[in-house]
Design a protein that fits this description.
Number of domains: 1
Helix content: under 10%
Strand content: over 45%
Shape: globular
Oligomer: single chain
Largest sheet: 13 strands, antiparallel
CATH architecture: Clam
Distance between the termini: 26 Å
CATH class: Mainly Beta
């Protein structure tokens, strides 16, 4: 899953974006639950499939992934730290480049997914144009961060986020995110497919996440929405 894939060159970028508004939108969407499947290649080139259920509550700000295949475990992301839990014991922690508040779950719930929340995150809109049904925008990082952060290119279609391209300060592409097959649940819009392409050592690395059985504002599974991370 894009959200849990480490990429150090983007760490400073997404750590900086802490000024995101946490207001619940007018529709009062505050939590999401979904089945997921993730297909990707590991560093050795092996095809990997993961399946499970993800929970996110806008108030707890924790992404909780209950993996059921191939390994039964729970992954919890809080801020930029990921906690790996098996049999109710914390076995490892790691860092990630994306804060939970900038995940597709949080931004969709607050109605800010259309431009990835950049308008409230310190970035400046440089250009806006229309091309073949797409709205294309270019965003520049804060002035005090331009030495190590590049521009972000965003495309939207029919008022839905379509794609994001991350550039480094030299204008080299770092990653692409593509959002596809949106569903609408009582006004809540969410992409059921997210393709992430990252570029390392001139190689493309693909990561495809699919969502199904999406539930909004559910009242069950409270122990996962507000999951307590064990201390040992």
């Amino acid at each position: 899953m894009a959200l849990f894939k480490k990429k150090s060159r983007l760490l400073a970028f997404l750590t900086l974006l802490t000024i995101v508004s946490f207001q619940i939108n007018a529709q009062q969407f505050h939590r999401i639950k979904s089945d997921y499947s993730i297909k990707y290649k590991d560093p050795q080139g092996n095809q990997i499939l993961q399946m499970g259920v993800v929970f996110y509550d806008i108030n707890s700000k924790k992404i909780v992934m209950k993996n059921g295949f191939p390994i039964r475990e729970i992954l919890v992301q809080k801020d930029t730290t990921i906690y790996q839990i098996r049999n109710e014991h914390l076995i490892a922690t790691s860092g990630t480049y994306a804060m939970a508040e900038l995940s597709v779950y949080h931004l969709a719930l607050i109605g800010d997914l259309n431009n990835y929340g950049l308008d409230k995150a310190g970035y400046t809109l440089d250009t806006l144009k229309s091309d073949k049904g797409l709205i294309l925008t270019t965003w520049s990082p804060p002035k005090n961060a331009k030495a190590y952060l590049g521009r972000i290119l965003v495309s939207s279609k029919d008022k839905q986020l379509f794609g994001i391209v991350f550039l480094d300060p030299s204008e080299k592409i770092i990653a692409k995110h593509l959002f596809r097959d949106y569903i609408n649940i009582d006004g809540f819009e969410f992409p059921t497919e997210i393709l992430v392409i990252t570029y390392e050592d001139d190689k493309e690395i693909f990561n495809l996440t699919k969502f199904s059985k999406i539930v909004i504002n559910g009242t069950d599974n409270e122990e996962y929405y507000n999951y307590k991370i064990p201390s040992n």
